[in-house]
Design brief:
Elements (H helix, E strand, L loop, with lengths): L2 H13 L3 H17 L3 H36 L4 H6 L2 H11 L12
């Protein structure tokens, strides 16, 4: 059984229990018309891309939370140590990497 046949067989089996899978089969049919025999591969890559985008968002959200926690827990350190270890700079760097502002809880403001 070829890779394509295996992929389509697994998807068809799942389609019996899953509305999304049924729509996926329809989408693969369209992609196959547009891209020839590589249509199923295009669909598979689209799914992997969407999964990757979701994972990136989860990681960015987690990094923002960690940055907020860093600043919150760092508030217990004296001002000298906060400045010496550039706590605010680390917070700013982490939130910039995460692509946005971290939300500080009321207890950390």
């Amino acid at each position: 059984m070829s890779e394509k046949e295996r992929f389509l067989a697994e998807l068809a089996e799942s389609a019996q229990d899953c509305t999304y899978c049924g729509h996926a089969l329809d989408r693969i049919e369209v992609l196959t018309r547009e891209n020839g025999e590589k249509g199923y591969q295009v669909f598979d890559l689209m799914c992997k891309f969407n999964d990757s985008q979701k994972r990136i968002k989860e990681l960015e959200d987690t990094l923002r939370e960690c940055a907020a926690e860093l600043l919150g827990w760092g508030a217990y350190a004296s001002e000298y140590f906060q400045e010496k270890y550039d706590l605010q700079g680390d917070f700013d760097r982490f939130t910039a990497i995460a692509g946005g502002k971290a939300e500080l809880g009321e207890e950390n403001k």
